[in-house]
Amino acid sequence: MPDLSQAESTISAVFKEQKQVDDVIRRLLDRDVPRDNISVLGRNFQSETRIAGFITKKDVILGGLKTGAIFGSLFGSFLSLLTGVGVLFIPFVGPIVAAGPISAVLLGAAGGAIAGSAGAGLVSVLTTLGMPEEKAAVYQTRLEAGEFLLMVEVPRDRTGEFQLLLESAGGEEVHTSEKTLARPCLGPCNGPNDLSPEVRAHLSQEAQRTFIERYNNVLDETSDEFTAEQAAWEAVRQQFDEDENGVWSKAKVSV
Q: What is the pTM of this model?
């Protein structure tokens, strides 16, 4: 069985319908792509429980994954196959369901880019992942229109195979970047030097300690790196504010 865990590239595509996303995720899993390598963004997931049922207007205004882990049973069975499902607010797009490693990326180091006063939205985040600005703008526009963005991380020598799979499943605007989504640590974090540069650069020393402590505690409980990452970023958000450089460094004052 081929090892697809050593991902080196990220392939992205837009899908018009939820059933297409469902189909392509199952096809990827059937090809032994780890579920931790698949991300989905969308705003029009059909569900018996609407977004308004579990995210408040205040949550939306403040932005971020305020509700913790929200599992796929609320959205449809295929999202339950992925890691780190949650909701956040993106300027120009609105409330977005994010599943997979992209959810932690959006919650964490990219938070300043999304919520910044300039309102750059998703475009600025996707460009940091190696995507041309014009392609990122297309993705943001199509998400705003109610379509879905799927991203899958694969070995570089198999990108052609998976590009064809996405296209045959109805994927449009297919793009390949020779970068993958940043993870905070490979396993437990023994100290700041274990944090990825992308994560460490957005945390003060005190915020790094908060992140690492929460990350390791949740990792011990769940053995799920993405759940631990989301919990760690949420702990940082609860205790710190960002400074003008996008670094979580200002300790919140208790009222």
A: 0.71
